[in-house]
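User: Need the bound-state model for protoporphyrin IX containing FE:
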Amino acid sequence: MESVSSVPRAPGATALLGHLPSFLRAPLAFLRGLPAHGPLVEIRLGRKPIVVVCDPALTRSVLVQDRVFDKGGPLFERLREAGGQGLATCPSGEHRRQRRLIQPAFHQGRFPGYAGIMTERMDAILGSWHDGQTLDLSVEIRKIAADVVISAVFGTSLENGIHTRLATDFDTLLSGFTRHSLLPKPLRKVPTPGNVRYDRATKRVRRTMTGLVAEYRTHGAGDETNLLSMLISARDPESDSPALTDEELVDQAVTMYSAGTETTAGSVGWALYLAAVHPEVLGRLTAEVEEVLGGRTAGWDDLPRLTYTRQVLSEALRMYPPGWFLTRQVMADTRLGPYSLAEGTTMAYSPYLISHLPALYPDPERFDPDRWIQRGRQPQVPVTVFGGGARKCVGDEFSLIEGVLLLASLLSHWHVDLHPGSLTLPRLPQLTLNPGRMVATITTRGRRAPRADRPDQVAL
Ligand code: HEM
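Assistant: Bound-state model below.
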């Protein structure tokens, strides 16, 4: 008979806080160190034990058995406060029905249309920037990503005031998210300024989305050209009543906004940052962009020729996958590899950890877009960066198209001089692993001041 072992515990836990101090001090280094202790490793974040999967095959087993390893654990408990029971957060029992309703919005045939929306929005926003302007690229890239998702979900560009309010509230949610997920419930309820801000932002995001859904029901539905109109017209095959209530529509709108904005923005932000600190990569990237686009905004037809841009994006996704630490709940006593796991165990898988395994990606700390040169039908995406199994990211293709178009278009229109003091590596990663401030001065391509005039800046 095969022997069943219990999961080893990572060394270095303190009595009261477990591994929390090491996790908070340097979370990425902490994760990189875990595989040395086994394919499954138990850590303690405060009082909560969490079993982290450190092996690619076992990660896959967790992802494909989505009824045994269901969405749950501290991450999804917090996400449900804002996103309710939308596609990304609902339990597996509800998931198949929702996925069937939403999947057609991400069907291959829709991508040229979405790419058209992306090009139009990027053209408008990149064209509104000024020669010599200094801006925080993290903020601006996120605005574009939010605009694109909202346009695809609501079929219209979002009014400026609403956009600003949503962006500010999501900022508050995302920046307080990790801390809030780790705090025990009684401490989350203490009315500290941080907790009050977090609760208010959660409520306001839902209120804003409720207003948008109501307005859409009155003025916008009918043409089924975007996600929300498709969902509004969807009928339950048995009762022929609307498939989703207003509350459920709000859940989906919040889910798409939060799942589709920070993630894509992070991948483009990291790609720009990594190119800035690797001049050889930057040279090849800008040469491709100039040759393919000649100064214009990228569109659907350009995608097959933007191959190096795609490689840079894939490598940025590997180095800093936006979804970096995702939790699950074990629903029934089970086995995983040689280990037994009890019902109720909290699990986590980490696309970051898997993307940094030397067995999969030799010399994993090296930024090397040539890892992703297309060879045959090999996938061009790092494993698990978009999850897997039935809960795999529904927006994966959407975001890769958007990422390539945005990275190429930005560099096609603008020279970017990133101020070195603003190049930030992640401090405490939040819900997504995004770069911090990226302050840059932009100049129209072809009219950039000579490098010697700007000795204190890094040019993109
Ligand atoms: C670089 C960009 C993106 C990355 C890295 C990413 C990553 C992920 C990951 C890792 C998951 C699985 C989460 C888990 O296993 O718990 C996921 C799920 C999901 N993502 Fe994405 N995502 C990206 C972009 C998008 C976009 C653009 C959208 C929507 C427009 C989107 C919508 C969703 C949804 C709705 C789910 C839940 C799917 C389900 O459970 O059926 N994502 N994403």
